[in-house]
Inverse folding.
């Protein structure tokens, strides 16, 4: 079986789906590994390093002809056009926000595996949890970017030239990225507060050194699968208004809030920005084309408001640490491949909850319930949970895979 890595096509993307260590591992399990020439350049990985690890360095066309094509992000239209039925494509496809891409993958007849759809709370899915590995990096880098942009110190500094008070940092959204941002800002010496709508985040935030902020006007808003639910309009307005008071009392804000499949919630409004002190810094990790957690943030750009607040639209932080991000992603994707390959070929077990969570197109159809596929057949989930059966070859499977259960992931 041939597994390939293609060079990423998204502008500015520096990550690569496999690193040489992962190639060694895949070769040891009997796979042929093809790397598109120059695929690792953005992560400072040379073709020679891949070749020494046992990979073949090939053209893009040859890489795109492999049985399974690995990538970090989404395939562009030209890449999809080059694929043939029966091939597998594995990447962070973010299908919930791009129905056209999902349809084009189904039309191409490929087996599309979206690693970001993995049911993250399943214990056996943890080594494959690329959302967490990349969010960890993003949270760490967000705190560093904020500290670098902030014109004062993060730590308390007592010097002969005077005393600098520690920065007050507020982290909005305490998921994987938020927790890492809190920990990193604390290690830099800042005083850190945090807020989230999921009540269980209080103890998590406190365990990494933040003071948790509770709002009196907004109750708990936990959704399914460990995620937050979208707030109602009334809740959203109350949240924005009450948060504004807290925001004004902080020097640095790091926002990470997300609701699966939705526009990131707006937490810092125009009015809240106006109430902040000039020189304050905001890192908006929710910045996206749909809008971010902060009014006026632009993905990939830094803007300064007329009141002197710097807003960094930090949408590509993992890519800015491409060597670390690629190494972690490679471990995630290697673990997923090991799970999917049985007897030297890709196979899917329709009763396996993990596989059902990640396969979005198969045999020319969209098969994931979160993408509008028909309800799945009733299956014995309990038996399948810890002992997946060998399963049928992906190319020959007739029925759509089963749905996620309540444990399920980002759907
Ligand atoms: P995420 O990226 O979906 O969202 C980031 C945070 O934003 C979340 O904590 C969410 O509650 C918060 N948020 C959403 N709307 C908000 C709003 N209006 N105001 C304030 N905060 C808001 O989250 P994530 O980092 O992907 O983590 C999601 C969940 O998955 C968490 O429960 C996490 O513990 C869980 N998780 C579990 C495992 C595991 O069990 N192995 C692994 C990874 C993540």
């Amino acid at each position: 079986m041939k597994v390939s890595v293609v060079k990423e096509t998204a502008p500015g993307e520096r990550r690569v789906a496999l690193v040489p260590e992962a190639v060694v591992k895949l070769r040891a399990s009997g796979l042929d590994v093809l790397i598109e020439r120059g695929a690792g350049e953005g992560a400072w990985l040379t073709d020679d390093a891949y070749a020494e690890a046992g990979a073949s360095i090939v053209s893009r066309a040859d890489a795109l002809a492999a049985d399974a094509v690995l990538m970090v992000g989404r395939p562009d239209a030209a890449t999809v056009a080059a694929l043939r039925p029966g091939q597998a494509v594995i990447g962070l496809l973010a299908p919930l926000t791009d129905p056209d891409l999902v349809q084009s993958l189904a039309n191409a007849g490929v087996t599309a595996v979206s690693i970001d759809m993995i049911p993250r709370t399943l214990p056996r899915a943890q080594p494959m949890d690329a959302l967490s590995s990349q969010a960890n990096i993003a949270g760490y880098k967000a705190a560093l970017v904020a500290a670098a942009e902030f014109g004062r110190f993060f730590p308390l500094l007592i010097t002969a030239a005077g005393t600098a008070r520690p920065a007050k940092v507020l982290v909005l959204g305490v998921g994987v990225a938020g927790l890492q941002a809190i920990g990193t800002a604390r290690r830099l010496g800042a005083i850190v507060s945090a807020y989230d709508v999921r009540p269980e985040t209080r103890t998590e935030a406190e365990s990494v050194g933040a003071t948790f902020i509770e709002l009196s006007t907004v109750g708990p808003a936990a959704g399914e699968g460990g995620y937050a639910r979208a707030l109602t309009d009334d809740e959203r307005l109350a949240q924005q208004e009450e948060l504004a008071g807290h925001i004004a009392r902080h020097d640095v804000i790091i926002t990470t809030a997300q609701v699966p499949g939705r526009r990131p919630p707006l937490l810092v409004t125009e009015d809240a920005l106006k109430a902040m002190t000039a020189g304050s810094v905001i890192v908006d990790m929710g910045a996206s084309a749909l809008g971010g957690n902060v009014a006026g943030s632009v993905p990939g750009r830094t803007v300064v408001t007329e009141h002197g607040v710097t807003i960094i639209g930090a949408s590509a932080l993992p890519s800015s640490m491409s060597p670390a991000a690629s190494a972690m992603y490679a471990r995630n994707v290697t673990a997923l491949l090991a799970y999917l390959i049985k007897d030297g070929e890709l196979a899917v077990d329709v009763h396996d909850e993990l596989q059902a969570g990640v396969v979005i197109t198969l045999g020319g159809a969209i098969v994931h319930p979160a993408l509008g596929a028909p309800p799945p057949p009733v299956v014995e989930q309990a038996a399948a949970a810890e002992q997946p059966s060998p399963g049928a070859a992906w190319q020959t499977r007739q029925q759509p895979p089963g749905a996620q259960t309540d444990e399920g992931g980002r759907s």
